Amino acid sequence: MRFDAAVLRSYDAPFAVEEVLLSAGPAEGEVLVRVAGCGMCRTDLAVRSSAGRSPLPAVLGHEGAGVVVETGGSGTGLDVGDHVVLSFDSCGHCAHCRGAAPAYCDSFAPLNLFGGRQEHAARFTDAAGGALAPRWFGQSAFAGFALVLARNAVRVDPSLPLELLGPLGCGFLTGAGAVLNTFGAGPGDTVVVLGAGAVGLAAVMAATAAGARVVAVDRHPERLRLAEEFHASPLPAATPDLPGHIRRLTDGGARYALDTTGSGRLINDGLLALRPTGHLGLVARLHTPLSLDVGTLEQGRRISHICEGDAVPALLVPRLTALWRAGRFPFDRLIRTYPLADVNEAERDCDAGLVVKPVLIPW
């Protein structure tokens, strides 16, 4: 099978949309999905800054959604014609996977970031037969088709706007899951979201849907305006005495804070804005050592890293689509679509902050 894909051949080069070849269909437990749309995530673009760790050339993209066109065996639980959202890869048998924590799979990094499932490498090549790194995040969905494990494909209602659903498998899942799963926020709780990008705004929407009061912090006025439309109290990141302002807005301190920025200053501000026993979650990768100010972890305050929203995608994705149907999680307002051929324009717009969540449409 031949189809177009966006191939990254070097860490500092643009994507090249070119023909690729899938030489064999799905094996036992796999499904072949015709991609309707794939979100562009900061993790896809971070491959450039972690040069040498993720193998190239590769087809990236890990927020895919599409239609099952072929199944491998009868035990996939999916049928041809099913609409699915694709999520991250996991081994399925380690203690974390068996314990409903697939984001902490013992093999998460090698499966998703550093080479994928090598047994599939020979099946996925460029038009000249050159090997492509197999299955980025179990998907490689910047392409017309994606070959995935069936357990990482979540069936969704065919009446939903399939081309827009892909980010529910990672970016929106991460922000919403941190609030709904890790924090378990509910009515009467207060949540501070540091950074109003795709993950942060998903957290804002989820916290509002859960009945919590929300404060959103960002340096971009347009992102703050959007957060305010989702019922958050907006605060510029440069606000003097930011923790003090947050404490006043949250009646003495927030119960939860979520940092999506990786900024040491904002992490410290978020900790200082917590009430006693408050919890700050980190979802962004830290690229420098984190130095905590004196007093930030006193009075029972704590900090933890959250991966993929502590989510079991098969449980959280349907919950988020139900909230969308009810008008309580309007994630579609964060999305701008681009033809796959415009993948480099989408990356530039994402880097410039001109779009919250680009979604590439292959067909």
From TrEMBL:
UniProt key word Phosphoprotein: no
Instruction: List the SMART domains.
Output: PKS_ER
Q: Which InterPro entries match?
A: ADH-like_C (IPR013149), ADH-like_N (IPR013154), ER (IPR020843), GroES-like_sf (IPR011032), NAD(P)-bd_dom_sf (IPR036291)
Q: What would be one Pfam family of this protein?
A: ADH_N
Names of the cofactor(s): Zn(2+)
Listed A to Z, the keywords are: Metal-binding, Oxidoreductase, Zinc
The domain of life is Bacteria
Looking up PANTHER family in the UniProt record yields: NAD-DEPENDENT ALCOHOL DEHYDROGENASE (PTHR43350), S-NITROSOMYCOTHIOL REDUCTASE MSCR (PTHR43350:SF21)
Q: Name it.
A: NAD(P)-dependent alcohol dehydrogenase
- Source organism per entry reads Streptomyces griseoaurantiacus
